[in-house]
Amino acid sequence: MSTSVVEVSGEKVKAISDKRLTEIFCDICIKEILKGNRPGTHFTKDGWLKIMTNFEKETGKAFSQRQLKNRWNALKKEWKAWKKLKGKDTGLGWNPIKRTVDASDDWWESRLKVVLEAQKFRTLGIDPKFERKLNQMFMGIVATGDKAWAPSSGTLRSDFFEDVNNEILEENEEENVRNDVHILNDVHISNGVQIDGNG
Fold it and tell me: d(Cα 176, Cα 56) in Å, to the nearest integer?
């Protein structure tokens, strides 16, 4: 197993850097997400306990919650940089020999000027299969691009949902009404933040 020692808040801890262990960690996290142990942006205490227990059971390696949380944060940071690097560009291929995005030197030079933290991806990217796992872990909880918003940002811009299709299909109207009522019952607005875009 490959680990490296990093210093976190003055404490030296071993970090998971082995690809196989990282894949196992991601699979366990995804299972806990699907079980509902990450109801928002963070795992519950029980979720972390299950992640630590299952990780040790599957690998024979014991890591603290802090160590696993550090790995989670490092993966999230890498995923954000990767998504930012690729942006909205379509038609980018995957080069299995270089193990990164198959794009021209001009594309790389222009993108790396914008996304400085993505330099390492020029020689080793995130392969599509692993990217799908990271998407399951972080999509929806990490703000990326022009749709990023947080309660501290105040009122949502009126164009925030501009590209959302709000059409209700006639044959599903009754079901849509039931779902709307269910969603309204689940919505909690905190800190008096207005989210209707009407200022």
Answer: 44
